[in-house]
Amino acid sequence: MKSFGLWICSLLVLAVLSASCVRDEAVSTLDTELEKTLLRLSENGSLSYYMLPDGSNLAGIPAGIGNPLTPEKVELGKLLFHETALGRDALNPENLRTFSCSTCHVADAAFTAGAFQGIADGGMGFGEAGQGRRMDPNYAEENIDAQGARPLSMLGVAYVTNSMWAGRFGARGDNAHYEDIWGVFDPTTELNHLGLDGLEAQNIEGTVVHRMSTDAYLLDTLGYRRLFDRAFPEFAGEAKYGRVAMSFALSAYIRTVLPNQAPWQDWLRGNKSALTEDQKRGAQLFFGKAGCFRCHNGPALNGNTFHAIGVKDLYEFPGGARRTGPNDGRNLGRGDFTRRPEDLYKFKVPQVYNTSDMPFYFHGASHQSLRDVVEYFNAGVPENDNVPTANISEYFHPLNLTEQEVTDLTDFLAEGLRDPNLRRYVPERVLSGNCFPSSDAVAKADMGCE
């Protein structure tokens, strides 16, 4: 009887070990097949093509032309990005110094807006992650700082050559062929003649558009002058504290905001248990059958190309958006910049990390769940009748994914590409001591700060 019991126990142990081996073999097979796919697509023949550098490894992060990355610039930019005291050009006195870059690029919302439309000056409130931001009734609508498209995420923009949905800023890349129209149709693109990359040029203009500037109070009373002095010893006179210096500091910081703690990055570095089996199948779909990689590639899983996928514009958002409408040129995407018919309704390819933290998707905020986005691409049917069929991207067509494949792909996007610790890029405090991202009375009440 005792021998029989031992025999049964031995069988059970063998069964458990066998099942474990099967599971290990299945996971190993998924890993092996995924690695093969990635190596085939990699531009350098290595998994390193998809790896993001550490945010502190400044030498490994792409820098902008004329703006080498230094710890001093990054430190200053990190503070300025969240500093509401920079908002000194508000149109109403009661709104002075109550908004910041982070008002519309919220860390908890993947560095994009928590509300469907970003509002800086002329907005009030914040909520928990920016979703409570709304128009201040003391402002006329035409006076608020609200844009006609959702703010793009700041994640991974170190890998962006031409910034904004239309790619209008930046002297390199696709814009190098359009020097003759810089500043012609859009006066702000005159900045491209400075020869800068998109982020640096955009942020110069951004300080104007978003009503931000330095003054004696910010520099001397709050103590930012010494930080500018450390960051820009080569700048002469007042230029050291001007818009170019502000932009260079902001851009240096933003370039370090990388989602390098996502499970996907951990998997690429060798921890094959960082992704679940479902997420590995989703990754295989991303780089295979679903074809996502054709637009979203490289370390940041973004692209410096423009595509029309026929989504709705922001003015069509239920309840209405502010300061936009059917005739808003921003609805035309890349075509509004180039004035070429073939570029109409084409928008920049965004990055796809931390998309599960985003409450809205696409330039018009027309979708509100990540699975809905995947299902939209799977169906391959444009929702905006204004977009000519001839302009629709060749990659936008029915994908014929099964329900399980949609689930696996969504899981990879939602969890495999989610960096859970983006708050490491947020300072504990800013020199003003103000609440941030916003410091109007309603926002402070929302956030429970003084």
UniProtKB/TrEMBL annotation:
Domain of life, per lineage: Bacteria
Entry GO MF terms: cytochrome-c peroxidase activity; electron transfer activity; heme binding; metal ion binding
Location of the Cytochrome c domain: 72-189, 277-417
Keywords: Heme, Iron, Metal-binding, Oxidoreductase, Signal
Compartment list: Cell envelope
GO CC annotation, single: cell envelope
Chief location of this protein within or outside the cell: other
Keyword flag Membrane: no
Signal sequence residues: 1-21
Record-linked SUPFAM superfamilies: Cytochrome c (SSF46626)
InterPro entries noted in UniProt: Cyt_c-like_dom, Cyt_c-like_dom_sf, Cytochrome_c_Peroxidase/MauG, Di-haem_cyt_c_peroxidsae
Designated name of the protein: Cytochrome c domain-containing protein
Gene source species: Neolewinella lacunae
